[in-house]
Amino acid sequence: MRRRNGFGITLALAGLCLGVAATAHAQDAYRLPPQDVVDIVDAPLSPFTSLSPNRDLLLLLHREALPPVSELARPMERLAGLRLDATTNGRHGPRSVVGLSVIDLATGEERAITLPADTGISGTTWSPDGNSVAFILSRDDALGLWVADLETGSARELIPSGINAVFSAVSWMPDGERLLVHLTPESRGEMPERPRVPVGPVTQEASGIEAQVRTYQDLLADPDDAALFAWLATSQLALVDTDTGNAEMIGAPDFIYSSDPSPNGAYILVGAMEQPFSYDVPWSSFPDRTYVLDLDGEEVATIARQPVADYVPIGGVIRGRRSISWQASHPARLTWAEALDGGDPRVETDQRDSVWAQEAPFTEEPVEILRTEDRYYGTQFTEVGQTGFAVEYDRDTRVIRRWLVDFADPSVAPRLAEERNLQDSYANPGSPETTRNEFGRSVVAVPDGYMYMTGEGATPEGNRPFLNRVSFETFETQELWRNSGENLESVIGLVELDGSAFLTSWEDPVTPPNVRLHRDGDWTQLTDFANPHPQLNDIQRELITFEREDGVMLSSTVYLPVGYEEGDQVPVVVWAYPLEYNDAATAGQVRGSPYEFSRIAGTSPRFFLTQGYALMEDATMPIVGSDPETVNDTFIDQLVMSAEAIVAESVNRGFGDGERVAVAGHSYGAFMTANLLAHSDLFRAGIARSGAYNRTLTPFGFQAERRTYWEAPEVYYNLSPFMHADQINEPMLMIHGAMDNNSGTYPIQSERMFAAVKGNAGTVRLVMLPYESHGYRGRESVLHVLAESFDWLDRYVMPEENPMGPEDDAEPGAAME
Description:
Blueprint: H1 2-24, H2 35-41, E1 48-51, E2 57-63, H3 69-72, E3 77-79, E4 82-85, E5 90-91, E6 97-104, E7 110-113, E8 120-126, E9 132-138, E10 143-149, E11 154-159, E12 170-172, E13 178-183, H4 223-233, E14 235-241, E15 247-254, E16 256-261, E17 267-273, E18 288-294, E19 299-306, E20 321-326, E21 333-339, E22 353-359, E23 367-372, E24 375-381, E25 387-394, E26 399-406, E27 415-421, E28 431-432, E29 434-436, E30 442-444, E31 450-455, E32 466-471, E33 477-482, E34 488-494, E35 501-508, E36 511-519, E37 522-525, E38 540-547, E39 553-560, E40 572-576, E41 579-581, H5 584-587, E42 614-619, E43 622-624, H6 635-652, E44 661-666, H7 668-679, E45 685-689, H8 713-719, E46 732-737, H9 747-759, E47 764-769, H10 779-796
Parallel strand pairs: 40-42, 40-44, 41-43, 44-45, 45-46, 46-47
Antiparallel strand pairs: 1-2, 2-6, 3-4, 4-5, 6-7, 8-9, 9-10, 10-11, 12-13, 13-14, 14-15, 16-17, 17-18, 18-19, 20-21, 21-22, 22-23, 24-25, 25-26, 26-27, 28-31, 29-30, 31-32, 32-33, 34-35, 35-36, 36-37, 38-39, 39-42
Helix pairs in contact: 6-7
């Protein structure tokens, strides 16, 4: 009798537990925020712009609003760090660009390019003469090659299907009459099918060699994955005539990830993966071979061969030849870098890299061009002889140096053109304008002995973009134009290479970016893109600066909600993302503009303004340390210090009451949010999107942390909010894409963090978005995130009285319903 009663009680308890579990793990339907927010989300997007190589046409790439989740739900192959669509043999994901048009800069006339309906456009590339663009046209089951004549506005299909777009698929030959294309070879056979019964176990082995691999996702898991990836990644190179569409096959099929014709069009530089593939690293670290083909498909030379790159130290580079590319200013000459420190940044040495060059037919010995004190990051060649600006970077000091090097005569001493802390935005000289040289290659333009530099122009009052003229001989700078007034205007490109005519993107807080043509001191507006949400024009915004306790300057853009009146105290949302700096001076620099258009789209935190919240957006949370190896040792202290200053400033300026404050962020900002809830009582609630919370799951470094878990276990422990989940006594909403493929932010990070807070009687809600990755792209997902976020803050932050009770007396989990 007792046993029967006991069994009955057990069943009853089990049923009760199942009922609770069902509620806790319910599959909710997608929710909608208020209709006015839905209307803003669905508002049309402005197109992307691209200036033609000969500077007489402006291409507009028209974008689609958010796709439905059903597009994200298409079958996906998660292989070698990639997400692929086996139906099309390209990348998985919804289309973005859906139409093309072109503006004639001489007349201002806009011509639409006629294309099939319900298709997507990708891989758009200009012809060398700027009269045509080639692109990939995607349908539900095929990727085709098209070319558009911009003079007539007509487009033609060259190849209806069979493009292999797993990697870069299309580039122009220098003659402008042919395209180098990656095709799916007919000889590859049917797609491999995964057997129901495996052949055997998956085995890996280490042999005593240090191999510190970051936490990657979507890696190959077994031989069946490797076979499918090999099938998808196999490409056949072909030269396609743009008049006839005829394709001439070049060489044999291979696992090709890159192909680049030489400047004179006589050779093709090929990068191809080699088997066996690795289960530990993504495709970019697979064994590979770099070789040169002639146009008959014959292999001329093997330039480099690399084993699997799982040995590269954190922040290091591969051994041997790397960054192999054509010298843009030479008919057929390759350049590359080689590490002098074994690729290990921990090695103390006076010189880290050497730079080499070798001419076709690659039978002579390579020539050493220069050696660099720090890591070499490539060269941007100019139109003057064989000169180029070579860049080196010191990861410890964050100092970048740019040297003008003569590749034709290595005996000529390089000249220093730039030296600064990479994070010193005030000293940023900008980027040089480019032109096409005799080979159709993009090089730095130097008309009449001057370069023309454009940049964001960061200042203590906010960004003021500029156009400068810089002497090629002395590097002396003359300012030609700078943005002024209550607007933000930045240079798109030069229409005349002497700087007398140029295109800009102009915007102000209530006007979206539009294109202007400046000529002879006057301007003409070429586009008229409408404000997608004029109902929000009354939002007030201000770029503010203030100081934290240790003297480091902070900044934030403050937005006040619709209908705000002077003296109102409203609930505040702090949106931030921590960054590391070597010194307080660069950490305190102002970045951004008070005059940019207040675009509200996607899951932007600016949507909180529609619900009565003030927003402190891009509130700086600098982590300052002169030694980058130990900068994270004071991460928590500096994070809390910044948060205290931010909340205090909202009170000082009168729009916040210091009580109704929420903190929110995405990715590392989510990590920040959880840490601030655990280590301070400054906030009523938090919203953490797509974060990582247990740093022992990323043991070979994260963000700017260079030490491994075994070298600094206390840092990994102290910085992991998972380890302090029992201290989170404010409500936290967690949102994560169920298919997040960002390194380190596995969905399990949020799942285990939710369980930790819940297990310690905290108030927490976890929303896993089907088919979404690190960012959220599906329309239903975006609207659901906004609805959840509004509800969370309306419940816990909006009320005058804290629903959780007084801070000192609050019991974890004692939320009001």
